[in-house]
Design goal:
By secondary structure, the chain is mostly helical. Among the domains are: 129-137 and 144-234, Tetratricopeptide repeat domain (Serine Threonine Protein Phosphatase 5, Tetratricopeptide repeat, Alpha Horseshoe), CATH 1.25.40.10; 237-274. It has 45 helices and no strands. Helix 10 runs antiparallel to helix 11 (206-219).
């Protein structure tokens, strides 16, 4: 045989062998699939999943195996893994309806609206009449109608949900839409009937029980509310929020013996978790010493006492014994093998390390935990918080979605998700998550206050009031809720209810409650412009001896607000006769003297106060400010340097230094200080704004501009003009002119007298080819500018105005 024929034969044989191997791989994959299917049907899911993973090694595109794997891990409660498997499936089969529906439903459950829209769009195209597709689309339509405030679309979604309730009775989503419609309409009775109907089909759906509890709360039916809480504890024994709610309920009614009896019974039945709840209750009601004594008793009686030793360490840390707490936790971990318990201990130690400044050690422990168990919820919470603080919001959101898939009823996770969305500038999603956290926590005070403050920041006083009222029914003596409610009533000029809140606080036994009541009463009188009555009220407090110095300060403040400096100064001098060494009254006198024209004496008082105690940050700040206002820049600069020497860790003084450097044109040095401040507290909006603004205005590097955008995203959609200007200018520099316009126009509406704001809008108008509008803004820029004004924006405005008015073209 010739060499050529031999070569041809070899190639043919090789080709045939490859085909045989290919067929063999497919056959082996199918065999593994059938074995996996059989094992899963027999109830041996874990071994079945192993067989399915073998399928993927041979054939990653095996449709039936991938779907079976996704469905199986979903049934096991591994929602994040299931979601990932379905995603992998639609990569191979992008038009597969089953995969898209599953992804849409899971995304709807976790309120991941972008994913809901992405997957339901495909499902709707290929299966528009499928009930499951209609249910998902209905939920999305309802949510979009609420966001756009489209009442007609909202009602249409509710009407569709009423139809779908019967078409797809196994789905809760249509009922949720209907319920939300009743709740928004204030029809509590109809909502309660709808919940009861839904519970006939979905008796173990915790969200329905939570809504029912909330409805009893709104109706004020205390007996039904208590029975519902007890029923929920029986149905969902692992849910700690329900127990906490019942406990708050007992405590709000001053039924302490009933509360402790409930906890002790629960502790005996539930072991570690129950005993931990009992210890926390004892800390709150009887103090740390009593709680520690109880822990010591438990440790002495338990053979496996690692959990309780960790609990003792936490109590020691809370009482200031940091070294003792750390030593005990490290001793527990020294020879312990990896387990759920050691992972919990590591998380506890990580929190302590973080709080004492050992950031590296804290992160190391959390990463160790997540390597051992990537679903450890407390470790995930800590890591998510750090990611948010570091502006890694996308990573934080992904991590929190995974955590919520594992623990969908965790209000803390929802609050963290709200923080992540806030940092990312997704305001609507912040509100959704905070609202969900309130619902999930059963109107707990902390979650309710967070949501109420979010609403108040958006000037939504009445919805905020509703949230707080619901929380107050379960915790009627919560001082913080009462105080915020009282301030809301003053803001909306509801004098009767503000007075009622003040009187409620005054009747409570704590001194703090009485102090809040006094402040509310004072604000009430001031809101009604009863100047003389305010003074009489305060003088009456002084005569009763209630917090004499505080009352005196309030009287002085009232005289200042009423534009009566002479009376204020007289009261200060009177107070100084009684309290001659009081730094507060002396500093107040200095401040008042400056306003009446005697700045030199004010400076002398401040210097004397600092000579006695140079650790007074407020006095350094006031001294610097009065020197600046008195046109003594060299002395002001020296005072600031002296203050920073005395208080090297003062964030306020560093902030002032950065502002002075910016004003002097030393922008890189100012940015360096803001970077330090931002690293210490990245949640401070003003620091974030100033840092992003400087980066966007005075640097041209793409990396710096992108970092400025990441920092400034949280300013998106704000009503604060300086924040609008910062975010709008960054959007302009990134070429997003529509986004820039929606922020720069309201920023330049005249509230600010800062010429750079008008300059920024003028430059945007140039980019949008609106020369007449640009000319108007450049003229305003120069009208508002100082004389002289060394800022580069002013010089640039002159150049642009000359170019625009000379008739030259080009952008």
């Amino acid at each position: 045989m010739s060499l050529k024929k031999l070569a041809t034969l070899a190639v043919s044989l090789l080709f045939l062998s490859l085909l045989t191997a290919c067929d063999s791989a497919e056959e082996r994959a199918q065999k593994h699939f059938l074995q996996g299917l059989e094992l899963i049907e027999q109830g041996d899911a874990d071994r079945g999943l192993v067989e399915l993973r073998n399928v993927f090694k041979l054939n990653g595109a095996h449709r039936e195996a991938r779907l079976l794997y996704a469905k199986t891990v979903y049934k096991q409660g591994k929602f994040a893994e299931a979601y990932g498997q379905y995603l992998r499936h639609v990569e191979f089969y992008p038009n597969d309806v089953e995969g898209r529906i599953a992804l849409s439903e899971m995304a709807l459950k976790s309120m991941n609206w972008g994913e809901v829209e992405r997957h339901s769009k495909v499902a709707l195209e290929f299966a528009p009449t499928d009930p499951r597709v209609r249910v998902v689309v209905n939920g999305l339509d309802f949510r979009n109608a609420l966001l756009s405030k489209d009442k007609q679309a909202e009602q249409a979604a509710i009407d569709e949900a009423i139809i779908l309730k019967d078409v797809a009775p196994e789905s809760l989503n249509p009922r949720r839409v209907i319920l939300e419609g009743f709740l928004r309409a204030g029809d509590t009775r109809a909502a309660l009937k709808e919940v009861d109907d839904a519970l006939l089909l979905h008796a173990d759906e915790i969200n329905l029980h939570q809504i029912k509890l909330s409805l009893f709360n709104q109706l004020g039916d205390t007996d039904a509310l208590e029975k519902q809480l007890v029923k929920m504890i029986d149905l969902f024994p692992e849910n700690t929020d329900i127990r906490a709610t019942l406990l708050r309920w007992y405590m709000s009614r001053n039924e302490m013996e009933k509360a402790e009896a409930f906890l002790r019974t629960y502790a005996e039945a539930e072991g570690e978790t129950g005993k931990a709840d009992l210890i926390r209750f004892l800390v709150t009601t009887q103090g740390t010493d009593i709680a520690l004594a109880e822990v010591e008793r438990i440790i002495a009686s338990e053979e496996n006492n690692g959990f309780y030793r960790a609990l003792r360490a936490s109590l020691n840390f809370d009482s200031g014994k940091t070294d003792t707490a750390i030593a005990e936790l490290e001793d527990l971990l020294a020879s312990a093998e990896a387990s759920d318990e050691t992972r919990r201990i590591k998380v506890t130690l990580a929190r302590i390390r973080w709080s004492v400044g050992n950031l590296v050690g804290a992160r190391e422990l959390v990463e160790e935990v997540l390597v051992e168990d990537n679903t450890q919820i407390d470790a995930m919470k800590l890591k998510a918080g750090w990611l948010i603080d570091g502006d890694q919001t996308n990573d934080a959101i992904l991590l929190l979605r995974t955590a919520l898939a594992q623990s969908p009823q965790d209000a803390q996770l929802m609050t963290l998700m709200a923080r992540a969305y806030e940092r990312d500038g997704s305001k609507d999603l912040v509100g959704e998550m905070l609202s969900l956290a309130v619902e999930t926590s059963n109107n707990a005070p902390q979650e309710s206050l967070l949501y109420a403050r979010f609403l108040l920041a958006d000037d939504k006083s009445l919805p905020a009031e509703g949230v707080l009222i619901s929380a107050l029914r379960l915790a009627p003596n919560n001082l913080e809720i009462l105080e915020v409610l009282g301030n809301i009533y003053i803001k909306i000029n509801d004098i009767a209810r503000a007075t009622q809140v003040s009187e409620t606080l005054a009747r409570l036994p704590s001194e703090n409650a009485k102090s809040i009541a006094t402040n509310l009463k004072l604000r009430l009188l001031q809101a009604q412009d009863h100047g003389d009555e305010v003074i009489r009220f305060l003088e009456g407090l002084a005569q009763t001896g209630e917090d004499d110095q505080g009352v005196r300060l309030a009287i002085i403040r009232t005289h200042v607000l009423n534009n009566k400096p002479a009376e204020a100064l007289s009261k200060i001098n009177e107070s100084l006769q009684k309290y001659p060494d009081s730094p507060v009254f002396r500093a107040l006198k200095a401040r008042l003297l400056e306003t009446t024209g005697d700045a030199d004496q004010a400076i002398e008082i401040y210097r004397d106060l600092l000579q006695q105690d140079d650790q007074q940050e407020t006095i350094w700040r006031e001294l610097y400010a009065v020197l600046q206002r008195s046109n003594k820049p060299d002395q002001a600069k020296l005072a600031l340097e002296q203050g920073m020497t005395a208080l090297p860790d003062s964030a306020t003084l560093k902030w002032m230094k950065a502002s002075s450097l910016e004003a002097a044109g030393e922008v890189p040095a100012a940015i360096a200080i803001y970077e330090q401040l931002y690293a210490l507290n990245s949640s401070n909006l003003v620091i974030a704004n100033n840092l992003a603004s400087l980066m966007a205005n005075y640097t041209d590097e793409p990396e710096a501009l992108e970092r400025a955008y990441v920092i400034a995203k949280r300013l998106r959609g704000t009503n604060e003009p300086y924040f609008q200007d910062t975010y709008g200018w960054i959007a302009y520099r990134r070429g997003d002119y529509e986004e820039a316009l929606s922020h720069l126009e309201p920023a330049a509406d005249g509230r600010l007298k800062d010429p750079t704001v008008n300059y920024h809008l003028g430059m945007l108008y140039i980019a949008l080819n609106r020369p007449e509008d640009a000319i108007e803004q450049m003229q305003k820029t120069l009208e508002l500018a100082r004389v002289p004004d060394p800022r580069p924006e002013i010089a640039a405005a002159k150049v642009e105005l000359a170019r625009l008015t000379s008739g030259s073209s080009g952008n």
